[in-house]
Design brief:
The chain has 224 residues and is an all-alpha fold. The chain has twelve helices and two strands. 66% of the residues lie in helices and 2% in strands.
Amino acid sequence: MSEVWPVPLTIKVNEETFTPRQQAVLTAALDLLVENGDGLTMTAVARRASCSKETLYKWFGDRDGLLTATVQWQAAKVRMPQVDRSHLSAKALRLSIEQFARDLLTVIIGDVSVTLNRTAITHAAQEKDRLGLIVLENGPMGIRRRLKPILEAGKEARLLRFTSSEDAYRTFFGLVVRDVQIRLLLGDSTLTQSNVEANIEADVKAATDQFFALYGAGATHNRE
């Protein structure tokens, strides 16, 4: 059953803002990916979004460009926390990290992300096209780039202690996602979107507590 996404607000991605019409096209592309997996074509997207192929080529260049924008649009649902770096408090930092964890877990368990990742893994194994690299660069790597500046801000404010923001992010990701993503990708029948959603708030709080226990300024075992 396809996940129903609400009409999205404009989200800034890589310094470029998708217009509402472009957002509708990208949402249509995501819906098609969930329904057909491997069958995304410019013709199918144009038909679903009620626009011309010429318009798609003008906006996105080619199918790889459309796929890149589609993955960016999906990844943009994990919002970059907005903090005042000059007056960053412990409470604001924690709330920002919790928001990021909530967005990350919510996006990862959705039908769209599961389908994107399954398709990308299959294509990478078959060396079929660039979808694997597109998903890697604009999905996980793009999401990572959104949180690392917040971690660095926490370090500058002496609220976090770590040597490498990359290592800190990887720890954070592992605490939030755990084995949920791989179990969903492998079709674990005991794990459903609904039972993951039911525990999101508890999981987010637990992951954030564990992260601050490891990297918080007052932690007894800082990674520095």
